[in-house]
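Exercise 3.2. Students should predict the tertiary structure of the chain below and write it as structure tokens, then compare their answer with the key that follows.

Predict this chain's 3D structure.
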Amino acid sequence: MATKIGGISIYNEATEDFTRISYRKNQPAGLNANFVNVIFEDNRKNVWIGTSQGLNL
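Answer key:
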């Protein structure tokens, strides 16, 4: 699930919990911004996340 201010939330059906991925300064494994415009899965199962600051893979 994409959000405008909180990055993305990923739902785990087995545990019924959400994992949040967001921008945090000096954290290279996170997003480059919290305003998420689009989430796209390509034919190789890569998930691309488009934010107000560019793409994340």
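Discussion points: Strands lie at 8-12, 17-21, 36-41, 47-51, 54-56. The chain has a mean pLDDT of 92.
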